[in-house]
C-alpha cells in the first residue's frame, strides 16, 4: 500500500455505504460540506471531513465522506459549479460501486448571479438567472438574457 | 408556436433571407393592397426609454397594414413608476394586444418579456445589447443599395462600445461570407471585448483604427454612429475626439462613387449636412426602409401571408 493510501486509511475511515467526495481542491472541503448539509434531510447525516491530504493529481486535496443513500440533485448541481473536477464515489459494502467526475453543466439555472449590473436578472424581482456553456477549458458561459460571456470562475454564487 | 424577434444571434441565415425577401415584397406592393392585412390587430408599444424613429416607424408600419397601436413611451404615468415588475406589465399588456414591441434600458429585458408573454415580442433595443429590427432594416438597405450582403468592406464608426445597433449589425454581417470590417472609434469606445472575441473565434477579417478618413476611402459601406457626450467621464476627452469622428462633404467627394453612408440616426454633428445631397448619403432612404422592414416583421410574427 502506498504511503498516501496508508495516510488516508489512518486518518479517514472507510464507510460501508454512502458517498466519498474526492479530489476537492484544498481549502474547499468545508464549503462542499456546507453545500451538502444545507439540503433538506442532510443536516443530520454522518459526515467525515478530511483536509490537506497528499494527492498525486492535485498536490494537496480535501475529501468529504457522507453516510447517505443519495446526494440531493440540487447539491450535485451546485458542486459542479463550485468545484468542477471533483470525484463522487458511491460506496456500497465498503467498495466503490460507481464513480463520477463532476463536470460543469451545459446550462446553469439559478445558483449564480450575472456579473453585468445592467442585466435584467439583477433588476427584476425574483428572477432566476440562466447561463449556457459556450466553451470548455476555460469554462465560459453566456447569460441567456444580456448575452454577455463570463468565465465560470467569475460567476458569483447566490446560494449559501 | 409563437415567434419572437429578440436578438440577431437567434437568427439563422434562412431567417434573415426570409425577412429580407418579405420586406422586398412589402416594398414592391401597391400601398393600398397592404392596408387590410392587419385589420383588427393591436400592437402594444412598451417604451421604457425615449425613441422617435423606432417607435414612430412601428406605429407607421402598423397603420399602413390597417392595425392600431396602443402603449406608452415613458414610464412616469404607468404602473412601472409604482414599482411593477416587467413580467407583470407584460402579462397585463398581452391581454390588450396581439404583439408587443419593447424598448428597455436593461440588457435582456426583451428576452424576459418574450419568455413571459404568450404573444410575439419584438426587441426594439435592450440596454447596450441588441436592436435586431434595426439590424434587419440595415441589411435590407445594404442589399437594396449594393445588391449583396457578402464580400463587402464595411467600416463601423463612432461609438462601438455602447452602440447596440453596431453590436447587432456586426453579429449579423459576420454570418455572410467574405465580409471585411474596419472598426473606427476612439480607444475608449472600442467594440466590447466579448464581441471582439467572437469575431476572432470566427476568424473574421477585421481591423481597429482611429482613422476615419482612410476607412471612408477604402470601404463599400460606412456605418456611422453618434458619439454621445454623456459616455465620457471627462468632457475634455469628448471634445478631443468628437471632431475626429465627423464626416463632411470633402471627405466623401474623394471616396468612391459606390460608397454608401448609413446612420441609425439621430445624428448630431458626426455627418455634416453638406453630405446629405451627395449620392453616397443613404441614411434617409434607410429610415424609409425601416418602416418597410417593420411591416414585414409584423406580418411574419403575426403569421399573415402577403
In short:
The complex is a heterodimer of chains A (160) and B (306). By secondary structure, chain A is of the alpha+beta class.
What does this structure look like?
- The complex is a heterodimer of chains A (160) and B (306).
- With 160 residues, chain A is of the alpha+beta class.
- Chain A folds into two domains: 3-101, Alpha-Beta Plaits (2-Layer Sandwich); 107-157, Roll (SH3 type barrels).
- Chain A contains three helices and eleven strands; from the N terminus they run αβαββαββββββββ.
- Chain A has helices at residues 3-11, 29-37, 73-82, and strands spanning 18-25, 46-55, 59-67, 87-92, 95-101, 107-109, 112-113, 130-135, 140-143, 149-151, 156-157.
- In chain A, strands 2-3-1-4-5 form a five-stranded antiparallel beta sheet, with helices on both faces. A four-stranded antiparallel beta sheet of chain A has the order 6-8-9-10, with no helix packed on it.
- In chain A, β9 (140-143) and β10 (149-151) form a beta hairpin.
- Chain A is elongated, with a radius of gyration of 17 Å.
- Chain A starts with a helix and ends with a strand.
- Helices cover 39% and strands 15% of the residues of chain B.
- The two termini of chain B are 20 Å apart.
- The model of chain B has no long low-confidence stretch (mean pLDDT 93).
- In chain B, α1 (13-28) crosses α5, α3 crosses α4 (109-116) and α5 (132-146) crosses α6.
- By secondary structure, chain B is an alpha/beta fold.
- Chain B is globular, with a radius of gyration of 19 Å.
- Chain B is built from eleven helices and nine strands.
- Chain B has helices at residues 13-28, 53-64, 86-96, 109-116, 132-146, 164-173, 193-201, 212-218, 235-242, 249-253, 283-301; strands at 42-47, 68-72, 99-104, 121-126, 153-157, 180-184, 205-209, 221-224, 260-262.
- Chain B folds into two domains: 8-130 and 290-301, Rossmann fold; 133-287, 3-Layer(aba) Sandwich (Rossmann fold), CATH 3.40.50.1370.
- Classes of the chains: A alpha+beta (160), B alpha/beta (306).
- The interface between A and B is medium-sized, with 17 and 20 residues.
Amino acid at each position: 500500500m502506498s504511503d498516501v493510501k496508508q495516510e488516508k486509511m489512518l486518518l479517514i475511515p472507510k464507510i460501508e455505504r454512502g458517498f466519498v467526495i474526492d479530489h476537492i481542491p484544498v481549502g474547499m472541503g468545508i464549503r462542499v460540506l456546507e453545500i451538502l448539509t444545507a439540503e433538506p434531510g442532510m443536516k443530520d447525516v454522518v459526515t467525515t471531513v478530511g483536509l490537506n491530504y497528499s494527492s498525486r493529481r492535485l498536490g494537496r486535496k480535501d475529501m468529504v465522506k457522507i453516510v447517505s443513500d443519495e446526494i440531493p440533485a440540487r447539491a450535485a448541481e451546485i458542486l459542479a459549479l463550485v468545484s468542477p473536477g471533483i470525484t463522487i464515489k458511491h460506496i456500497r459494502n465498503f467498495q466503490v460501486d460507481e464513480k463520477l467526475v463532476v463536470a460543469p453543466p451545459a446550462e446553469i439555472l439559478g445558483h449564480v448571479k450575472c456579473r453585468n449590473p445592467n442585466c435584467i436578472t439583477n433588476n427584476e424581482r425574483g428572477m432566476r438567472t440562466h447561463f449556457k456553456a459556450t466553451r470548455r477549458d476555460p469554462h465560459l458561459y453566456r447569460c441567456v438574457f444580456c448575452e454577455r460571456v463570463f468565465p465560470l470562475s467569475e460567476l458569483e454564487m447566490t446560494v449559501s | 408556436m409563437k415567434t419572437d424577434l429578440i436578438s440577431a444571434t437567434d437568427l439563422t441565415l434562412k431567417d434573415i433571407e426570409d425577412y429580407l425577401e418579405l420586406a422586398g415584397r412589402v416594398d414592391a406592393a401597391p400601398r393600398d393592397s397592404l392596408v387590410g392585412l392587419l385589420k383588427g390587430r393591436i400592437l402594444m408599444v412598451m417604451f421604457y426609454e425615449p425613441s422617435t424613429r423606432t417607435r414612430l416607424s412601428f406605429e407607421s408600419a402598423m397603420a399602413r397594414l390597417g392595425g392600431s397601436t396602443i402603449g406608452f413611451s415613458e414610464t412616469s404615468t404607468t404602473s412601472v413608476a409604482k414599482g411593477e415588475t416587467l413580467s407583470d406589465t407584460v402579462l397585463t399588456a398581452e391581454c390588450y394586444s396581439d404583439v408587443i414591441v419593447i424598448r428597455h434600458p436593461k440588457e435582456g429585458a426583451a428576452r424576459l418579456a418574450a419568455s413571459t408573454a404568450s404573444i410575439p415580442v419584438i426587441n426594439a433595443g435592450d440596454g447596450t445589447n441588441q436592436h435586431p429590427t434595426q439590424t434587419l432594416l440595415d441589411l435590407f438597405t445594404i442589399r437594396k443599395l449594393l445588391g449583396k450582403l457578402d464580400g463587402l468592406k464595411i467600416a463601423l464608426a463612432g461609438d462601438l462600445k455602447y452602440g447596440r445597433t453596431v453590436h447587432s449589425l456586426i453579429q449579423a454581417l459576420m454570418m455572410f461570407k467574405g465580409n471585411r470590417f474596419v472598426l473606427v472609434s476612439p480607444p475608449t469606445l472600442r467594440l466590447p471585448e466579448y464581441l471582439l472575441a467572437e469575431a476572432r473565434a470566427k476568424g473574421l477579417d477585421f481591423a481597429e483604427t482611429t482613422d476615419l478618413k482612410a476607412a471612408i476611402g477604402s470601404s463599400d459601406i460606412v456605418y456611422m454612429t453618434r458619439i454621445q457626450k454623456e459616455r465620457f467621464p471627462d468632457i475634455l476627452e469628448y471634445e478631443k475626439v468628437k471632431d475626429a469622428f465627423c464626416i463632411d462633404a470633402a471627405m466623401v467627394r474623394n471616396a468612391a462613387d459606390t460608397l454608401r453612408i448609413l446612420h441609425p440616426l439621430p445624428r448630431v454633428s458626426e455627418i455634416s449636412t453638406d453630405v446629405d445631397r451627395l449620392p453616397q448619403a443613404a441614411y434617409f432612404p434607410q429610415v424609409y426602409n425601416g418602416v418597410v422592414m417593420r411591416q414585414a416583421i409584423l406580418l411574419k410574427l403575426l403569421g399573415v401571408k402577403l
